[in-house]
Design brief:
Elements (H helix, E strand, L loop, with lengths): L5 H4 L4 E4 L2 E5 L5 E4 L3 E2 L18 H19 L3 E2 L3 H7 L2 H11 L7 E3 L12 E6 L4 E3 L5 E3 L3 E4 L13 E5 L3 E10 L2 E8 L18 E2 L3 H13 L4 E9 L4 E7 L9 H17 L1
Length: 281
């Protein structure tokens, strides 16, 4: 079995020709990638997020590796848990909203806009504002920053900043609990977090990452698996919300999201399901 990850792939010894992709290990013996299974959780090393000048030497090197890895993914003859193109499509939050409508999954109404006066009046006075594209960036000093979903009143002066970039806006829901749902193939595991004592975006509360507990919400598990299938991804990490009336609402799907912070009895089953899918190929 050939094992490599995004970090090692960026330093790999490989040959791509008309017959396929060969990787060379420490012994120099080639291994042909063909007919096996793989998982594209991260396409490139984490360090490749670091900013480089596009026309510098380092920028050109990074572009060459990025292009080469994309070609390797396409031509390697590997059956991927989630195909690369489907991952890119499934990341789009408006595509996710459309899939919810098509599958009958409950989700808050969402608009993408740049001017506060376009916010629908039926959204009410309490809003949630979310980044549309990347939710992270680096400052000029190189520090990493995360843009969390943020509650705002309709008259909040920060809404005037929407003209700087398109943002997503939703009506705020009164949350009773948050759900993290992970799907692998047709299976799904649900974990729950009480909304008390955590931010609207629970990721902003450090203690929340160790406070989830297993849930038996079968209905959400089924809907989450159906939604992942509709979006064409074999793995997904989804965020849902249960309001005070007990109704569940889909919020977001990440085709490469985290799961190891979940309770051990949940995270181990997810890890095993991924491993079994890879080995069964």
């Amino acid at each position: 079995m050939l094992l490599f990850d995004a970090e090692s792939l960026g330093k790999a010894d490989f040959l791509l020709d008309g017959s396929g992709v060969r990787f060379f290990g420490s012994t120099g013996e080639p291994t042909l990638l063909s007919g096996c299974r793989g998982w594209l959780r991260r396409l490139a090393p984490e360090s490749w997020r670091d900013r480089v000048v596009s026309d510098s030497h380092d920028g050109v090197v990074q572009q060459a590796w990025t292009a080469a890895i994309a070609v390797l993914v396409e031509l390697a003859g590997v059956s991927w848990l989630s195909e690369l193109n489907q991952i890119f499509v499934a990341e789009d939050k408006l595509v996710q909203s459309r899939a919810c409508r098509e599958t009958g999954v409950n989700t808050p109404p969402t608009v993408l806009l740049t001017r506060r006066e376009r916010i629908p009046p039926e959204f009410g006075d309490r809003l949630i504002v979310k980044p549309f594209a990347a939710g992270h960036y680096r400052t000029e000093d190189g520090d990493a920053r995360v843009v969390f979903a943020t509650p705002m009143d309709r008259d909040d002066p920060r809404l005037d900043l929407l003209s700087g970039a398109p943002f997503l806006v939703q009506p705020e829901l009164d949350a009773r609990s948050h759900l993290r749902v992970v799907t692998v193939g047709g299976d799904a595991w649900v974990s729950e977090l009480d909304s008390d004592e955590v931010s609207v975006d629970w990721r902003a509360t450090a203690s929340a990452h160790s406070s989830f507990h297993p849930s038996t919400n079968h209905e959400v598990a089924v809907q989450a698996a159906d939604l992942a299938a509709a979006l064409g991804v074999g793995y997904s990490s989804q965020d849902w919300l249960v309001d005070r009336s007990g109704a569940a609402h889909f919020l977001d799907l990440n085709p490469a999201g985290q799961w190891l912070f979940l309770p051990r009895q949940v995270s181990e089953r997810i890890t095993l399901a991924i491993a079994e899918w890879l080995v069964d190929g």
